[in-house]
Amino acid sequence: MAEPSLARAAVVWRIVFAAIGCTAIAYQWWTAVVTSMSTSALGSTVVYFSFFTTQTNVLANLIFLTPVLAPKSRLGRWAASEGVRAAVAMYIAVVGLVFHFILSPTWKPEGLAALGNWVVHYIIPAAVVLDWLLFTSKGRLRWIDPLKWLSFPLVYGLWTVIHGALIGWYPYFFIDIGRIGWAAAMVNYAVLLVFFLIVGLGIIGLDRTFGRRRRRDLQPGSA
């Protein structure tokens, strides 16, 4: 049977991309906090982890590593669940798409910074989505799930508003209340939430399609 080899491939895949992802996050943190000679390491760390890209890449590394290192733990079972893996696939797919089509013209790093940028915006998003497609069980997600998955970007938006009001800094220009105002920022974020929902519904559609195909293949007499 192919299942044991598929499970082994999943373990190798997750270890490799967790190593790549964790290295990129550590390097970007080092660059943002240590080599920048910031007067406040704590403040710079909070700013670095206030980017949705950073938070979502942390989630990606979590769902890569914990099912491998602690599969029977509560955290390992949570990270291995179909709903969590699909939700993270939705979040990080949006990260990659928004960066490519909206943010990349405004951000042109060079050298190792450019490599780290590619990892967190392209390589890890692709790895998470492919992990979900190749290694995650299908057929048990519901159409209502993407609405539930919006809780993370909603909480992130609330944090961004509070944090931005306190220090006068916002991570992305399209939600920079200080520069574009409340109305434009809220409209932009509402559009972004709708985009999250569309991507999530696409994931549900794929899940149900692959789930039906697998059930049909497992039926007695199927070739």
What does this protein look like?
The protein is built from ten helices and no strands. Helices cover 78% and strands 0% of the residues. Helix 1 (3-34) crosses helix 3 (52-69), helix 3 (52-69) runs antiparallel to helix 5 (82-103) and helix 5 runs antiparallel to helix 6. The chain has helices at residues 3-34, 41-48, 52-69, 74-80, 82-103, 112-135, 145-149, 151-167, 177-180, 182-218. The model has no long low-confidence stretch (mean pLDDT 92). The protein has one domain. By secondary structure, it is mainly alpha-helical.
Structural features:
single chain; 223 residues; mainly alpha
Present the secondary structure layout.
Layout: H1 3-34, H2 41-48, H3 52-69, H4 74-80, H5 82-103, H6 112-135, H7 145-149, H8 151-167, H9 177-180, H10 182-218
Helix pairs in contact: 1-2, 1-3, 1-6, 3-4, 3-5, 3-6, 5-6, 5-10
Using DSSP, what is the number of strands?
0
* Percentage of residues in strands: under 5%
Shape summary = globular
C-alpha Rg (nearest Å): 19 Å
**Which spans have pLDDT < 50 for at least 5 consecutive residues?**
none
Determine the number of helices (DSSP H or I, runs of at least 4 residues).
10
Number of domains: 1
**Spatial gap, N to C terminus:** 15 Å
How do the SSEs run, as a string of H and E?
HHHHHHHHHH
Helical proportion?
over 70%
Task: Characterize the biggest β-sheet.
Answer: none
Average pLDDT: 92
SS content category: mainly alpha
